[in-house]
Amino acid sequence: MGYACLWTKDHTPLPQSQALKPAACVKIHEEQASGGNRARSVLARVLERISKGDTLVVMRIDRLARSLSHLLEVIERLEAKGAFFRSIQDPIDTASPQGKFTLQVLGAAAEFERALIRERTKAGLTSARTKGRIGGNPGLRACDPATLRKVRLARQDGYMERLNETAQDWVPHVRRLRPDLAWEDVVRIINGPLPRDRRWTQSRLLRAVKAYVRDGFLPATVLERAGPRARDDRLPAIVAGIKGANPDMTLQAICTRLETMRERTPRGRTSWQPSSVKMLLERAERLGLL
Fold it and tell me: What does the pLDDT look like over 104-125, one tens digit per residue?
């Protein structure tokens, strides 16, 4: 899969597309976004659909990420799916030993940079204390109501900003599946394609959904209690939820997702077959879930 990102200051993605075509890309995905924006819809869709053995190809690493932390985060998501990453103009190809070594060096450099920042921060705080300066906000120390309100609003804004960076992972699922499915099943569907360090807990997801409902980004109906569902209808609803998130998903890919979710077949087995998924999708259509 090729990915060409057109920054707002650029004029055309043509040079990127021309560089990606010789790399034998089956499809090239193009997107226009600002340089510092991590929540890119096209990139999120590519990372969702990429599967084991695939390779994400870019012309240069700055077309994928503008920071080392973001680059490593994307590559970790690819590795969790058994996929690879290659940059044409940079010495990075995670399918080769040399590329993996380069990636390890980048990760070590990122960790070293974080360690330096921590040490400089500690040294600065120690120096300030020896000079009699006390850190922190004077208004907070005095419990000033206006200051407390500003801090509370700033924390709320920071929380919403962090939620917006991950919205593509969970908002479409919540909008489509709630309140038809219980929260437990919704969380499992959301976590299916995500790497372990980005998975949600039910309580954390509920807090995020309530914040989005409060600000009008999601309808209040998603918080309604899930109605009783017949035991035989649960699996069709889960399979319909997975298929609805990605209509192009193959039966085998849905099998893999269900096995990742540790969902058992109607006969209680742990290994899924495409024929079983097809049967459940047909039942989901009859139930009006698709």
Answer: 777 677 677 777 788 888 888 7
Q: Residue 216, by phi and psi: left (phi above 0), alpha (psi -120 to 50) or beta?
A: left
Bridge partners of residue 84, in order along the sequence:
55
From 286, 230, 218, 290, select the one nearest 254 (Cα to Cα). 290
pLDDT along the chain (290 residues), means of 10: 75 71 83 70 85 89 76 85 87 81 73 77 80 67 75 79 86 86 86 83 93 90 78 79 83 89 84 90 80
Q: CA 89, CA 99: separation in Å to the nearest integer?
A: 13
Q: Quote the pTM value.
A: 0.43
Do strands 2-7 and 28-33 pair parallel, antiparallel, or not at all (unpaired)? parallel
Beta bridge partners of 55: 84
Radius of gyration of the chain (CA): 23
Give residue 185's pLDDT: 84
Alpha carbon distance 199, 246 (integer Å): 19
- Give the whole-angstrom CA distance, residue 269 versus residue 86: 38
Sheet of strand 55-58: strand arrangement:
28-33, 2-7, 55-58, 84-87, 92-93
For residue 20, count CB atoms less than 10 angstroms from its CB and return exposed for 0-12, middle for 13-18, buried for 19 or more.
Answer: buried
